Amino acid sequence: MAGMESDPVVAVELFHEDVDRAAAEVAALHGGRIRCERGCADCCVDGLTVLTVEAELIRRHHGDLLRTADPYPLGACVFLDRDGACRIYPHRPYVCRTQGLPLSWVEETGGGQLVEMRDICPLNEAGGPPVEELPEDACWRIGPWEGRLARLQYAFAGRLERVRLRDLFRPDGEVEVLPCRDC
C-alpha cells in the first residue's frame, strides 16, 4: 500500500475506517440504546452536501450506479433504495457514519462564552440517561474529526468546497461546487 496515503481519496477511505472504529466504541457504551440499523432512514434527508473529496470517493466506487440508476425521489437521500437502505453504505460520507450517536460540540454565545451543546437522534433518546448527563467520552465529539477531514479536502482541492449528493446523478457529470460554510 506504499504511496496510497498520498492519494487524498484513499486517505478518506482510511479516515472512514478510523471513524467507524471510534463510532463503534461510542455506540458500545450505550448498549441497546443506539438502534440504528438497515432501513432506518430518518436521518437520510434530502439536500445533503459533502466535501468534494468524499464526492470523488463515491464517484470512484459507484460510477455505474451514478450512470445507470435513478436517484431516490425528492424528500430523502438520493442513495436510498426502495427499502430505505443505503446503496453506497461502505462508501457513505462521514456525516452518515456518526448519525444516531449522542453528539457533543461547542458553540460560542453572543457574549463570547463557549457552551457545550448536545443532541441525540430522537429514535435513540430512550433507554439511557438524558444526553446532557452523559460523560464526555460517551458522546461523539464534533470538531476534531471534521478538522481531519478538512485537511484531506485541502490536499484534494486546495480549498474547502462542497457538492450536493443529488448533483452526483447529473447525466453530464457536472456538479455545482458550493462554498463551504462552517466546515
Any overview of this molecule?
- The protein has 4 helices and 6 strands, in the order αβααβββαββ.
- About 30% of the residues lie in helices and about 15% in strands.
- The two termini are about 30 Å apart.
- It has a domain of about 120 residues.
- α1 packs across α2 and α1 runs antiparallel to α4.
- It is globular and about 50 Å long.
- The protein has a 3-stranded antiparallel beta sheet. Strands 3-2-4 form a 3-stranded mixed beta sheet, with no helix packed on it.
- β2 and β3 form a beta hairpin.
Short description:
The protein is of the alpha+beta class and 183 residues long. It contains 4 helices and 6 strands, in the order αβααβββαββ.
List keywords for this structure.
183 residues; alpha+beta; 3-stranded antiparallel sheet; 3-stranded mixed sheet; 4 helices; 6 strands; 13% strand; globular
What topology does this entry show?
Elements: H1 8-28, E1 49-51, H2 52-68, H3 94-98, E2 103-108, E3 114-119, E4 140-141, H4 144-157, E5 161-164, E6 178-179
Parallel strand pairs: 2-4
Antiparallel strand pairs: 1-5, 2-3, 5-6
Helix pairs in contact: 1-2, 1-4
* Biggest sheet record: 3 strands, antiparallel
Q: What is the gyration radius calculated from CA atoms?
A: 17 Å
Number of helices: 4
Distance between the termini: 30 Å
The strand line-up of the biggest sheet is 1-5-6
Q: Which ranges are low-confidence, i.e. pLDDT below 50, for 5 or more consecutive residues? A: none
Structural class: alpha+beta
Helix content: 25-40%
The percent range for strand residues is 5-15%
Shape: globular
- Secondary structure tally: strands: 6
Mean pLDDT: 91
Taken in chain order, the helices and strands follow as HEHHEEEHEE
